[in-house]
Batch of 2 targets.
Target 1
Amino acid sequence: MQIFTWLADYVAYNLLHLEKGQHLTSAIHFFIEDTSKIFFLLLVIIFIITYIRSYLTPEKVRSLLVKKGKNVYFAHLLADLVGIITPFCSCSAVPLFIGFVEAGVPLGVTFTYLIAAPTVNEVALVLLYGLFGWEIAAIYILSGEVIAFFGGIIIGALKLEKYVEGYVYENVSTEIDLEVEDVKITFKERVNESFEYTMNLIKKIGIWVIIGIGMASGMHGWAPTGFLAQIAGPGNPFAVLIAVLVGIPLYSNAAGMIPVVSELIRLGVPVGTALAFMMSVTAVSLPETILLRQVIKPQLIAIFLGIVTVSIIFTGYLFNFLIP
Amino acid sequence: MIIKILGTGCPNCKKLYENTKKAIEMGQVAASIYKVEDVREIMKYKVMTTPVLVIDEKVVFKGKIPSPEDILKTIFNEMLNKNKDS
């Protein structure tokens, strides 16, 4: 990643002839380095994930879970792992849910997948890796996976099938065709489609990433560290709680929030607090929850939201304890 | 020709609806478009990802938003297939 520092050095000192050591210089240097690095990573990583995903359709995931998931813990683990690379649009949550339940995937396993897929968000992953390195990115994946694994197990153990709307189970008896035919797409088409998807996504979130990094570089030289440390720093025991409650409604602007979050870490906000904030922004999606109401009753929605929120808050405190 | 767009009402589904409308205008195709938002109706098509484009009860796209040009191509292909059959 050294190359992006060189690029920023070259642009700031050789092209723009900025003076070293100035606030403005360091802000511009930071902006160039981080935008170029993050857009490069977004392009490469999202392309790779999209390419792999073109082989793993929801139908395949379902048949995998039904055929290989005889052992319930293994089924949870499998749902958890495929959840990393197959995020789905929140509007697919309902048909996906019904499709899983119809085929006999246990409710708990279905929820593990429903939690894992949005919790580990590939854009957030790219930003964390780009800004903090692989250790923090790995912690992010791991905590998301643990939350999804145990969240699903708890929901399974509570026997909550009664809170699923009756019509979902109406079709269970009908034979579901689990043989998934391989879609005949050529390698070239897969690459083209993945590239197109990647470019569309970058177009959609790019402006937010730039705004986010812009705000972060604005804070880079000037922000009053003391003030931030006071409200969100290690001194405030409620910081994680507040961060999560603020994060949940911010769902739609996840990509733009994250560079700001990363700058908060640099300014002394503990990693756990920042991580909890980011996970609450990406994992708890209000649009998805509203749609899920069509298939599950409010009690189960409340339990689902409760488990995820509590786990994220717990993760936040845990990491603040481990990495003070 | 009957074209249906299946989706629970998210921005992606609206985009697919607009693209389909454009495709029909571009190709001067005689078709009626319907939106299907009821989950039970959607599940009859055995799909797990939305939005979905259905042409005369056949699922032609699912889980993505094709461009108006791609939709028009598919519409023409479907018309050719039908003529062969009859």
Target 2
Amino acid sequence: MINVLFFAQIRDQLGVSGLQLPSAENNDLTTLLKNLKSLDSNYLSVLSKGSLMVAVNQTMQADNVPLYSGDEVAFFPPVTGG
Amino acid sequence: MIRVQTEDFNQQREYDRLREQSSVGAVVTFTGLVRDFNQGEQVASLTLEHYPLMTEKSLAQIVMQAKQRWNILACTLIHRVGELKISEQIVFVGIATAHRQDAFAACEYIMDYLKTEAPFWKKECNSQGTSYWVDARESDRSALNKWS
């Protein structure tokens, strides 16, 4: 399974802090994002934002990467700490 | 030393720790505070959310990159999370070096990267009790250009 997490506005807009997806059907980041967007129209609009950031196993990713069972994928808006 | 915590920090104690080594010739510190306005809104309080596992990794990475660029003798980075009131301390960066130029530069570098790469998010609450997420600022992203 792939452990998917959502933070800040993304979590609020989706109404869920995370979910688990089967790893076999989500074998890379692009496919996983496509599958999430196909869940419903809200997922499609929230996850289609150009500013969406993504981290795999707590490391920011800008490109497609392969995913394996046990990986943690997090989606969040641009950060605003400090 | 890197710490993410809900409780406040004591500047004097942090400064005293940074100057313990006798080879320290300069200490630069930065403290970020909750101010009472943002983007035209009167702010009553602030809640800071983070992504715990990633916060640790990204802050360690930012400090490691700074240590590769400058000769840093001691470094402290503290970021608070949870609900904070006006004028409370949010973030502390302290750098001890032999010479002041390294300390100034490293302190600014760490703040610039923290602002754009560490997974913290601010939610503000105004005096009417309405809360909203703070948008990221383009000026924070463009601040990185000077380090490339």
